[in-house]
Amino acid sequence: MSKCIICGQEIDKECEEHIIPYALGNKHFIIRSVCKTCNSLMGEKIDAEITDSLSGKIVRSQYGIKGHSKKEPNPFKEGETSDGDRIRLSPDFKPKLVPKVTRDENVYHISTSSKEEALDIIKKIYLRNVKKTLTEEQKEILCTQMKRTQTYPEIQFHFEFNIEKFYLELVKVAFETLYYQEGEKILLEESILNLQKILHDYIYKEQYDKELIEGIIGLPSENDSKDIDERLSDLKKQLSEQVVHLIYVLSINNELIVLSNVEGMLKGAVKIPVKDSNNYKTKMYFICYPSGNIL
């Protein structure tokens, strides 16, 4: 029976751990050496922060990636006007005012996108306060009293970017990619085990050695970044489908460098010192969508 590479416990039932989240179009770039509990916790506490972010939803919407829910996300589902009114957008980006009810003593002010919605709210308020239902005559009077206005408000969208979750996702991708590529021998390198410790401490204790993670995370150099973009561009021209993600493992000068380019939204490098970089391979992985092929 194998042991989980995150918590070290024996794995009772094998499950698929997606190195890059499934919700970002990765179908086959997986390992099977993570227990169900660690798999769920990393999905909930690390992956979801990326896939459910605004940039993650934009990527998923762009490629029509539905994920486990079988639903395509709407990255601009809800915004607000400068007056604080909430606006919801349908999947085809048609705006709709979220009903707003305010009360000034015994007077209710109701704002909705239609008379039908307003009338439905009034019926509920009337039933709650008077314990009776509105008559047809009362409904007609109310409809004639409603005022219709047409506005073209500027809709504002707010989102937060948590750099901590960005770093943790890079660490997760790097650690699992190295295991995918090299197998058990990576667990003999103390520096690589530091990645395991960061992940374990975060998903179980919601804390980790921040100095350690800041010491290994970096951005690709200008040349590396240019090289990655050119390779992706060339492949996209050659293939009938999209090349969505690239993971680049470099083994050089007693250091392992794992460059991650997850459709431009997650772009960074994890640098890990090792005893002898000649023991490890240099390799690129291109993950395509919708087939999920790994090139």
TrEMBL record:
Domain of life assignment: Bacteria
Pfam families: HNH_5
Keyword Oxidoreductase applies: no
Disordered: annotated segments: 66-85
GO MF annotations in UniProt: endonuclease activity
InterPro entries registered for this protein in UniProt: HNH_5
Domain HNH endonuclease: 4-54
Keyword Transmembrane: no
Keywords associated with the record: Endonuclease, Hydrolase, Nuclease
Basic and acidic residues compositional bias, start-end: 70-85
Name of the protein this chain belongs to: HNH endonuclease
